[in-house]
Specification:
single chain; 67% helix; 0% strand
Length: 64
């Protein structure tokens, strides 16, 4: 996450990086994806992660 920019600036940059003919749905999807990345990086920096093995156990439990 880039701390020196505001959320609005990050959103505008994301939109400006997309092709001019992007649909409304594509714009929204890219903005949501960018936000998910920011949140994931913040979680990682704060130590809110789980191991690969733990994730495997959780996924395996879904099939039960």
């Amino acid at each position: 996450m880039i701390a020196e920019t505001t959320p609005k600036e990050r959103m505008l940059r994301t939109i400006q990086d997309l092709p001019e003919d992007s649909s409304y749905e594509e714009l929204l999807r890219e903005l949501a994806f960018a936000r998910m990345i920011e949140r994931g990086l913040a979680d990682s920096e704060a130590g809110r992660t789980i191991s690969h093995e733990e994730m495997g156990r959780r996924i395996a439990s879904w099939a039960k």
